[in-house]
Amino acid sequence: MKFFITALGLVSLATAQEYSPTPTTCVVNNATYPKSAKLPDPFLLADGKRLGTKDEWACKRAEIRDQIQRFELGPKPPKPTVSATASSGKINIVSSEGGKSASFSVSLKLPSGTGPFPAVIAFESSSIPVPAGVATITFPNHDVAADDPHGKGKFFDLYGSSHTAGSLIAWAWGVSRVIDALEQLGPDTTKIDTKRLAVTGCSRNGKGALIAGAFDDRIALTIPQEGGSGGPGCWRIVADFKKNGTRTEDATQIITGDSWFSTAFAEYAPDTTVLPYDHHMLMALVAPRALLVIENSGIDYLGPISTYGCSIAARMVYTSLGAEDAIGLSQAAHGTSHCSMPSSQNPEVAAFYNKYLLGQTDVETDVVKTDGKFTWYAPQWIDWTTATLA
User: Fold this and answer.
1) Of residues 203, 262, 320, 330, which has the active-site annotation?
2) Among 47, 165, 198, 360, who pairs with 120 as Cys (CB 3.0-4.6 Å)?
3) Could you give the C-alpha distances from 198 to 70, 130, 298, 310, in angstroms and in order?
4) How many CA atoms lie within 13 A of 381 on its CB side?
5) Domain ranges of the chain
6) CA 317 to chain CA centroid, nearest Å
7) What pTM was estimated for this model as a whole?
8) Domain spanning 3-380 has what CATH number?
9) In the annotation, is 338 catalytic?
């Protein structure tokens, strides 16, 4: 895959697509890797070849997408037939497949001016500040797929209640349908510039926002807030964190509650060292597009050392693609006030919006900061090096 520089930063030539198709030279198979307590090498293909070029990274992305859907999230269906109408600050989206239809609506709040405007797609609502000049699209993700029980919501009305997808990938499917609708209606109707879209959400919605950004290349900026485990946290690291007696959310706990993950994930959750990936590779699916991870280091349940270490590992992929300044991590403790971002994190949020949605190219976004009271020892988790991709 080739890349080019625009006023909005480093972006893929495939941004007009939901995600870039698997190159014909790739072989994406169901091979698995040896069980590993360390984070799997994101530069190693299933056939044992280590990546040497950016074109080969396109093959690895396809492999990661396949693995995460197969083991954890469930399949994201391809684009159905989509139709959309807009009126009075609402966009109604109808998806049709196999003789069935399902619809949901999003609300649209525009800034003053003529547009077209960049926009953030916010899961339910945005709990981070949205700057002036950016529109807000409120996405009702729980209408698309319910937390519990499995099989409820508009996604399952269309694909059947027995579909194995968890609600997280169903939400990502819904975000893609929102973008389809925006493209179909066009900027004359919506006043939205679909080349400048962000997605955000907090807690479970932060997990959903990350997965939406990972599975749709049309999203320029992804900001998961306090997503913790199942989002920007690595399963292996949080399991070790819990083993030491800390009350935190790990895979074994997460599958007993809401239906966020595929029904298949229950088989792998008790021992995530068997997975051929971890969530540093989920975050790497966003690369080289912009990703800002906002976390609360003061809540053990969110696994702050896991989200920190996982982000550091993902950053190594961004570095290999020449996009290190397109990934940021900000952890700040604010007690038990979950999804209430402190003002100390405003500068990095503003910087990412300014650079990747508002086109301010001179903004500094190369940020990694934490006030977490933990020790991160990279060799415990990473026994591979950053590849130099030609």
Assistant:
1) 203
2) 198
3) 26, 11, 26, 22
4) 28
5) 3-380
6) 15
7) 0.94
8) 3.40.50.1820
9) yes
